[in-house]
Amino acid sequence: MRTVSKAIAGLLTAIVTLAACGVPVQSTPEPVEPGSVPSELRDGGQTPSPQPSATTHKLPLQVNFVRNNQLVSIRREEPAGTPADRLSTVIKDLIAGPTKTEQANGITTALPPGLTLSIVELQGTRVVLQLSGDTEGRSATENVLAVGQIVLSATALPSVDEVTFSRDGVPVEALLADGALTTDALTAADYASLRAR
């Protein structure tokens, strides 16, 4: 009898304690919607680790334009994807040119209006870009800045170290920052001296 009394006293104490804590006491059970149950309780206490997704987060990209005959890097936020996707986005942004806000801040482009670029090959860390459109009648300064814009923008991606150009499948000579012509692979170091200080 004394054991039953202790059990009843313990039960009453628990009810009073729960009531004092603000936990509602129900006389009949009610169903719980599955969506309102915390995932830790639904999945046996194991919280699933988030899966990385190439399309759900954004990574910064750098696109190079011109201010006062020097190259300046502009950060752009773009959806992540494969290296080829990200390179395509960089090329698209280069061809589109600086935004109106950037133009208002003195940012221009050395790329000629009729120029188009397409990815021929992305092999390892080297990319081959196909040039098309009219690039004649431009000064050496404009040409070297244009090449520098492309090379510095492409090599700002972690997946690209070298850029070469072709036109109709034939390698194209490119101007280096020192004025020399080359068909060798171009790197960021070749145009580092053109960066704004």
From TrEMBL:
PROSITE patterns: PROKAR_LIPOPROTEIN (PS51257). InterPro entries: GerMN. Residues 46-56 have a biased composition (Polar residues). Residues 29-39 have a biased composition (Low complexity). The keyword Signal applies. Residues 87-176 form the GerMN domain. Keywords: Signal. Residues 25-57 are annotated as: Disordered. Residues 1-19 form the signal peptide. It holds the Pfam family Germane. This is GerMN domain-containing protein.
